[in-house]
C-alpha cells in the first residue's frame, strides 16, 4: 500500500516516478543513461587498474585520482541501475531501507568527490608553487592522513541525514517525483515539521562553499606563481598540469550550480528540467572524469594505448 491514513515512522516502500512529464520517452532516455554508465564503469576501472599496475604512477596526484575514480564508481552504481529499472522495466517501487541506503550513498559520494577535488587542488598548488619541496610535503604519511580526513569529514556531515529521516513520521502518498532518493525529497513526504532537516541540509551544503573557496584560493596562488615565470613555454607547461583537474571541477560543480539556480530562481521552468539537471549532477561527472584524465594525462594515455595495442608500444 502506498496510501494510508495511518502515520508510520518506517513505511514499507516509496515509488520513484522517474522524470515526471517525460514518461512517454522513458524507454529512450534510458539508452544514453546506459551508455554513460558503461563509460563510467569501463573508464574508472581502467584508471584504477592503470594506477595499480604502473609503478611510475604511484605518486600523490594519482593516489587522489584513484580516490576520485572509486568515488565515481560508487556514485554511478548507486544511481543509474535503479534509473534504468524505472525507465525500461517500470520498477518504480523501492523499499524503505534501500531508499535510505541510496540516499546515504549518494550524499557520501558527492561529499567525497567535493573534498577529493579540494585536496587535488592543494596538491597542484604544492606541485607548482613549491616544486622542490613537493616530495617532502606530500609524503606517504601525509597522503594517508589526508585520506582519513577525506573519509571522516564526509561521514561526520552525511551520517546525520540518516537519523534526521528516521525520526520523521510518514503518512499519505509516498510518491517521490524523482529518479533517486535524496534527503530533502524524502523529508518533504513527512507529515511533521522538517525545519531541522532544512537547516542541517543548508549547513551540510555550505561545506561545499568551503571546498570551493579552498580551490579558488589554491588556483589564485597557482596563477600568481605561473605568471611570474620568465617564459610563456614555462607558463603553459605549468598550467597544462592543472588542465585535467580544472575540467573535472567544472564537470562536477557546473551541473550542481545549474540545478541550484533553477530550483532557486526558475519557478516557471518545467519540473522535468529540474529532475534532468539533478540527474546530470550525479550521472555526468563519473563518466567524464576518467575520459578527461585518460585523454589529458600522458602517463595514463600511454599506458592505456599499450594495453589496447601492445605490438606498437
Short description:
By secondary structure, the chain is mainly alpha-helical. The protein is built from eleven helices and three strands. Helix 1 packs antiparallel against helix 2, helix 2 packs antiparallel against helix 3 and helix 10 crosses helix 11.
What does this protein look like?
The protein has about 325 residues and is mostly helical. It contains eleven helices and three strands; from the N terminus they run E-H-H-E-H-H-H-H-E-H-H-H-H-H. It has helices at about 25-55, 60-90, 95-130, 135, 140-160, 160-165, 185, 195-225, 230-265, 270-295, 300-310, and strands spanning about 15, 95, 175. Strands 2-1-3 form a three-stranded mixed sheet. Helix 2 packs antiparallel against helix 3 (about 95-130), helix 3 (about 95-130) runs antiparallel to helix 5 and helix 9 runs antiparallel to helix 10. The termini are far apart.
Protein topology:
Layout: E1 13-16, H1 26-53, H2 60-89, E2 93-95, H3 96-129, H4 134-137, H5 140-158, H6 160-166, E3 175-176, H7 183-187, H8 195-226, H9 232-265, H10 271-296, H11 298-308
Parallel strand pairs: 1-3
Antiparallel strand pairs: 1-2
Helix pairs in contact: 1-2, 1-10, 2-3, 2-10, 3-5, 3-8, 3-9, 9-10, 10-11
Amino acid at each position: 500500500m502506498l496510501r494510508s491514513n495511518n502515520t508510520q515512522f518506517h513505511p514499507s516502500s516509496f515509488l520513484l516516478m522517474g522524470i515526471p512529464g517525460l514518461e512517454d520517452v522513458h524507454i529512450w532516455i534510458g539508452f544514453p543513461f546506459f551508455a554513460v554508465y558503461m563509460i563510467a564503469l569501463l573508464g574508472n576501472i581502467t584508471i584504477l587498474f592503470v594506477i595499480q599496475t604502473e609503478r611510475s604512477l604511484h605518486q600523490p596526484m594519482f593516489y587522489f585520482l584513484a580516490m576520485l575514480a572509486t568515488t565515481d564508481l560508487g556514485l554511478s552504481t548507486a544511481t543509474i541501475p535503479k534509473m534504468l529499472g524505472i525507465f525500461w522495466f517500470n520498477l518504480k517501487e523501492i523499499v524503505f531501507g534501500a531508499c535510505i541506503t541510496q540516499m546515504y550513498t549518494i550524499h557520501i559520494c558527492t561529499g567525497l568527490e567535493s573534498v577529493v577535488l579540494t585536496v587535488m587542488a592543494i596538491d597542484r598548488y604544492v606541485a607548482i608553487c613549491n616544486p622542490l619541496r613537493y616530495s617532502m610535503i606530500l609524503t606517504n604519511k601525509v597522503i594517508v592522513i589526508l585520506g582519513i580526513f577525506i573519509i571522516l569529514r564526509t561521514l561526520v556531515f552525511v551520517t546525520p541525514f540518516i537519523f534526521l529521516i528516521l525520526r520523521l513520521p510518514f503518512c499519505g502518498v509516498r510518491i517521490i517525483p524523482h529518479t533517486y532518493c535524496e534527503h530533502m525529497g524524502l523529508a518533504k513526504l513527512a507529515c511533521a515539521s522538517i525545519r531541522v532537516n532544512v537547516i542541517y541540509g543548508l549547513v551540510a551544503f555550505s561545506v561545499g562553499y568551503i571546498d570551493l573557496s579552498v580551490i579558488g584560493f589554491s588556483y589564485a596562488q597557482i596563477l600568481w606563481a605561473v605568471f611570474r615565470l620568465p617564459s610563456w613555454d614555462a607558463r603553459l607547461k605549468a598550467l597544462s598540469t592543472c588542465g585535467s583537474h580544472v575540467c573535472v571541477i567544472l564537470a562536477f560543480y557546473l551541473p550542481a550550480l545549474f540545478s541550484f539556480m533553477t530550483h532557486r530562481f526558475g519557478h516557471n521552468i518545467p519540473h522535468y528540467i529540474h529532475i534532468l539537471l539533478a540527474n546530470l549532477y550525479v550521472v555526468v561527472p563519473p563518466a567524464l572524469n576518467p575520459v578527461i584524465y585518460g585523454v589529458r594525462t600522458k602517463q595514463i594515455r600511454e599506458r592505456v594505448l599499450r594495453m589496447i595495442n601492445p605490438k606498437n608500444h
